Amino acid sequence: MGDTQVEVRYFAAAVDASHCESEYLTVPVGATLADLRELILSRHGAPMEPILRVSAYLVGDDLTRDLGRTIGGRVDVLPPFAGG
Predict the structure, then answer these.
(1) pLDDT in 10s for each residue of the chain, 84 residues
(2) Which of 29, 31, 41, 51 could form a disulfide with 35 if both were Cys (CB 3.0 to 4.6 A apart)?
(3) What is the DSSP track for 57-83?
(4) Rounded to an integer, what distance in angstroms lies between the CA atom of residue 25 and that of residue 34?
């Protein structure tokens, strides 16, 4: 099947934990959000775990928490935002 690149953009606390605003990761074609989360955890370690657990994800134009969702070329990691 092969691999593909996905742009992962981080926001709020996810930027702090990952030490970057975005990065390109190589994933297998047909990868899910669960697969991507595992890859992010392996790259950025334990500080990302509590953030990923409570985050929503923007996959294309769809906001989701469904870890079985197949990802495309870009995924935004959106932790809960505070303030107003």
Answers:
(1) 699 999 999 999 999 999 999 999 999 999 999 999 999 999 999 999 999 999 999 998 999 999 999 999 999 999 987 544
(2) 31
(3) EEETTEEE--TTPBP-SEEEEEPPP--
(4) 14
